[in-house]
Amino acid sequence: xxxxxxxxxxxxxxxxxxxxxxxxxxxxxxxxxxxxxxxxxxxxxxxxxxxxxxxxxxxxxxxxxxxxxxxxxxxxxxxxxxxxxxxxxxxxxxxxxxxxxxxxxxxxxxxxxxxxxxxxxxxxxxxxxxxxxxxxxxxxxxxxxxxxxxxxxxxxxxxxxxxxxxxxxxxxxxxxxxxxxxxxxxxxxxxxxxxxx
Length: 197
Known about the structure:
Keywords: Signal. The protein is α+β, with helices and mostly antiparallel strands.
């Protein structure tokens, strides 16, 4: 049965290959000094309470760690193809939640005093769309909706960032809220299955 599933996963990978082109020159490029400066300015714009040194560190680390993870995850394909390879056991990591967790872990090491980190999930309640996870940085005390999405998965190891409210591709929800909903939803499904309804 497992061989059968792997065969269909391989067919899916071949089909997905037609949707995206692998990078002929290897992993995605690192961010430039200009990229870091733009993100730094966006973080500073979150409010006058944001420490400029923290904004610079957060921006620099976001780009540096994205590139480090892209190398570690062996990113050479568009995200959906890479996901398929991870799920088949061909690549080690690189699903969106890996990116979100690893980025959050690295940024938390900085122990920011004027910035907060949030985990968020999109599409969890939509059975048609792929669920997506990310980390969001905000001014200390603000909600994730007033922050900036840091999403290295979306562009295959190139850091995408945007104010949360301006990210029209995804509708983000707090991770804790989605996990609570899933636990309730899964429990309800279990009860229905055992009651025969």
